[in-house]
Amino acid sequence: MIDWDAVKKELLQREGINAIKDPEQKRVISVYAENCLNKARHLAKAKAAFVEKDISCLSKISTGKKIRSYIKDAEKICAFVVTIGSKLEDEASRLMKENDQLSGYLLDRIGSFAVENLAEDFEDKLRKKYAAKKKSVSGRFSPGYCDWPTSAQSKLSKLIGFGKAGIRLTKSCMMVPKKSISSIAAIGPGGLFSKRKSQCSICDMKDCNYRRFKR
């Protein structure tokens, strides 16, 4: 489920709309942003697919050494993929081609924030589910981050079944629709992950927009 209030907050903050000093400029851009948010609510079609497997399945999806080391004491993993479909990105592309650059850009950014919010929601629900069972859940990892190569996306697709969420892979292992996120999260004994540092602590991507320091 997409929290559109959170998406709006992210948009206004990350795009600096709240910080615009010129009142008229801020008013105009805020109107554009609100119109694009309303459009996004109608265009985004949230879908998800997932599987839960024994931790031994890591060998089948070629995660990097750093990730394997981080979750080595887990009991199993949940591999999942979420998407908001293709309608939003198609509309953003159409607006760009028709020279409505601002609307196209804002709509595209909203789509990125929306699918990230959808992945966060899935992760939060997974954590709550296992907290009730006295288990802990790690933060999620996606192909292309840390030392997990994007090429492993094809193996993750086979494990989960991306097609169940209406997602396919290109030859270069990019997901279609683009506004999609695939990840794994590890599940282990209570306290295993909750007392550890953020999963970002093992990653060398210091300038990542989604870098987390606390969990």
Report a brief summary of the structure.
With 215 residues, the protein is an alpha+beta fold. The protein contains 6 helices and 6 strands, in the order ααβαβααβαβββ.
Explain this structure.
It is a single chain. This protein is of the alpha+beta class and about 220 residues long. It has a single domain, classed as NADH Oxidase (3-Layer(aba) Sandwich), CATH 3.40.109.40. The protein is about 40% helix and about 15% strand. It has six helices and six strands, in the order ααβαβααβαβββ. It has helices at about 5-15, 25-45, 65-70, 85-95, 100-130, 155-160; strands at about 45-55, 75-85, 135, 170, 175, 180-190. The strands form two sheets. The chain has a four-stranded antiparallel β-sheet with strand order 1-2-6-3, sandwiched between helices. The protein has a two-stranded antiparallel ribbon with strand order 4-5. The model has no long low-confidence stretch (mean pLDDT about 90).
